[in-house]
Structure formats: structure tokens, C-alpha cells
Amino acid sequence: MIDRLRTAAADIVDRAGVPAVAIVLGSGLSAYAAEFADATELSYASIPGFPTPRVEGHAGSLHMATIGDKRVALMAGRVHFYEGWDPADVVFGVRSVALAGASTVILTNAAGGVGSHVQPGNLVALTDHLNLTGRNPLHGQNIAELGARFPDMSAVYSPAVRSQIHAAAADVAVPMAEGVYAWFTGPSYETPAEVEMARRLGADLVGMSTVPEAIALRHMGIDVGAISLVTNLAAGISATPLSHEEVTATAAEARDRFTRVVDALLRRLTA
Ligand code: HPA
Fold first, then answer.
1. Who is most buried in 134, 140, 177, 208, counting CB within 10 A?
2. How far does the centroid of ligand 1 lie from the alpha carbon of residue 191, in Å?
3. How is the chain split into domains, by residue range?
4. If DSSP codes are grouped into helix, strand and coil, which group holds residue 171?
5. Distance from the CA of 210 to the center of ligand 1, in angstroms?
6. At the topology level of CATH, where does 2-269 sit?
7. Over the stretch 228-268, which tens digit does the pLDDT of each residue have?
8. Rounded to 5 degrees, what are φ and ψ at 243?
9. How many Å apart are CA 150 and CA 192, to the nearest integer?
10. Is 206 helix (H, G, I), strand (E, B) or coil?
11. Integer angstrom CA distances of residue 238 from 20, 113, 126, 150
């Protein structure tokens, strides 16, 4: 695995340069990468060993853009556990960009809102997560070149990066909430009982991504930040059945606010 990761990282550096920062663009949010017309675009399929998304609507390419005098890897699309990948494959992309040089990685996602303070359309900076899946990307032999066998997870989401997220949101006058994200594997949405369980356990959001990447990056000592876009009220909180269409429609409606915050955040992180 370490050789496969190093090969992918070397290919990214060879063809696109060394990223200082990387951002993973979640469901419905990938279009942001297209704003950088001068970026070097590498399709995931062209990077050796890189898993490529198997779901419609999730593009798969890395756009290396220049912001300030730094390179930023914009990852449009990600692979999810529910597509049938092993957790180690789910985190392959973020591990590669971290090995390529990114020391800060921002993870973004679409999520269901569980707490009454998170409404559809809201942006939420993650403070912590609940891994309710029983799966872990570090399962198996430890890759000592990446990190310790038993990595500390007491601050997965860097408080310094979180401050930058809040400052960036303030720069562009977009409200930014805070919350705890509970990872479910999907692809079925949660039941109302599962959402109620997550809420009682302390979750504000439920979703199907982000947590494995955050764990793997923290293992590597990377500074992680995460922003959820609440696309719907979670099952049972919502009076209506959930649909992927609702998720993508809310993401589209919120795209402008998301873009402004991410623009401001990347400017700050590359300053
Ligand atoms: N649950 C899980 N994942 C999601 C949701 C949800 O309600 N909305 C967007 N992604």
C-alpha cells in the first residue's frame, strides 16, 4: 500500500506540482473546481492506483490550482465506502495528496441535519465525529511510514483550521454553525430510529463520508478541517421521505454561499 501511495503521490507532483493545501469537494459541490480555468486537471483514472468513483454525479478529478503563490489540490469527487471499496481505498486519494505535500486538508460533504440548530442550506464546521460504522481505514497492518498504530483522535478537526473556517465565513458574511458528524455507511439513508440514536449520542449531522478520510489524515499528522452542507433534515426529523434529488437541489441552491466561503478559506490557508 505504501508503494502504491508513493507512486500516486509522485505522479501528482510530476504532472501537477506540490500542493500545500487540498480540499475534497463533496456531493453537489464539485463544480467549484471548474472555477479555476488555469488549473492542471488530472482525472483520477489517470493517476496510478487511484480509485475512481462509481456513483453518478460524483466527478473524479484532481484540479491543481494556484492561489496566491501556493498550489491547491481541488479534489472533485471522492470514493465512498458504500460503492464497495475497502476503507483503505476510500482514503487513498487524501493520503496521496498528503504524501504529495498537502499539510492541511479540508473535507466537505453533504449531510442530513439532526439537531434543531442545523437547517437545510446551513454550513457547519465539524468539531468532532462519531464513527458508527464499526469500520476504520487503519484496520489491518499499520503503515508505520504514515503514522502510529494507535493514533490520538482527541482533536481530529484542527481547532486552528476551524478558526480559519469561521474567519473565512465571516469574511464573506455567511453564517457558519458547528456540529458533530455521525458516519453511517449508506447507501440507504438512515431510519428515524437510527437518526434519533445518533442525536442522543451527540450527533448534529449524519452522512456517508468524511470520517474515514479524517481518521487517515489525522493518522498522518495532517491538519484537517471539515465543512458540511446540510442538504436535508435527517429521516424522522423531516416530515417527507428523503431523496437524492433533494440533496442535490439543496446543494445547488447553496453553491454560491459554499463557494464564497471556500474561496475565502483557501485564500487564508495559502496567505
Ligand atoms: N443521511 C446521510 N447522508 C446524507 C444525508 C442524510 O440525510 N443527506 C446528505 N447526505
1. 208
2. 11
3. 2-269
4. helix
5. 12
6. Rossmann fold (3.40.50)
7. 999 999 998 888 888 888 888 888 888 899 999 999 999 99
8. -145, 150
9. 34
10. strand
11. 40, 9, 22, 38
